[in-house]
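User: Good morning. I'm curious how 4'-deoxy-4'-aminopyridoxal-5'-phosphate would be positioned relative to this chain. Could you predict the structure with it bound?
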Amino acid sequence: MSVNLRIPGPTPCPEDVLEACGRQMINHRGPEFAEMIARQTSKLQKLCQTKHDFYIMTTSGTGVMEAAIVNTLSPGDKVLNVSVGVFGDRFGQIAEAYGAKVTSLKGEWGKGADPEEVARALEADRELKAVLVTHNETSTGVTNKLGEIAKAIRRVRPDILILVDAISSLGAIALPIDEWDLDVVVTASQKGWMVPPALGFVVFGPRAWQAYEKAAMPRFYFDVGKAKDYLQRGQTAWTPAVSVFFGLELALDKLEAEGIENIFARHHRVAEVARQGVKSLGLELFSDESVASDTVSAVKVPEGVDGVKLVKVMREEHGVVLAGGQTTLAGKIFRIGHLGWVFEADVQAVIDALRVALPKLGY
Ligand code: PMP
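Assistant: Good morning! Here's the predicted structure, ligand included:
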């Protein structure tokens, strides 16, 4: 039975990308790597629609979230964490771990953050130095209206730092970083980029560089200043995941050939197959329709059905690997990942399998 991996990352990779990852090692401080990282950095900037500095670090997504914080803030800095789920909460926890004073603006799970509430929180405390916000909350299948949120933030505080977790959206859902005036945006290779886990991407704008000069949180591995120095020489500060760079080379060719607007459109079409499909089964999305994500759909487990068993049956009997719910949502929702190298048929197969599996579990 073939496996249909439908979790929101790591996502399946094209065969030739995986083969490219299997190439022999090269000197990561030699000319071949220098050419490769220069080419990839510039391609990634274009695909991410930004002219800001761009750094590729060897780490998972959480590592680049940490990089966003430690390179711009100091212990004792007040920050506003706009959270609508598990990953939003994590952003605040990282800031707290490094000594920031975090004010949490927690929105109801399944809904997007309210731009005006964010504006009010900023008006209430003029000492806030940064806003942390998730673009696409993977735990609930919600894409925040980040353009509107950023506009509301800038209205109240034109120069405050906006740090964005776009781990499960960048390269798959439109996110015009420069137009929305975002300062740091991070993502990770195993999500929309059609390559295995190992690389984190950091977009670092001019306001972030100003903050960097004063930022006093401890930093070493994730120091963007070091990343900048080394990139000028065509290197990374530390030994990179060379194999995944090989794969990225091919994946970026594919993404470029498709074109960013077509990539966004494909994700939207595939997400519609998921949304219409679950509705056709009489199931309900966990997220509000107006903010339903184009990269991951969270679906309520229907009354009387054991959500954990459903995920198990889908895997064992249908070869469909779904994600369950996290923390308080465990057993209450299941999630269908549809980002990266994904097409309508991949998600239609999930719906077809659910149609067979659900009645066996009492639905
Ligand atoms: N933020 C978001 C929105 C995510 O989807 C994830 C991964 N699911 C993370 C952060 C954490 O990334 P990682 O597991 O690569 O550290």
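Residues 9, 60-62, 87, 134, 136, 138, 165, 167-168, 188 surround 4'-deoxy-4'-aminopyridoxal-5'-phosphate (CB under 6 Å). The chain has two domains: 4-10+260-360, 16-256.
Let me know if you'd like a different ligand tried.
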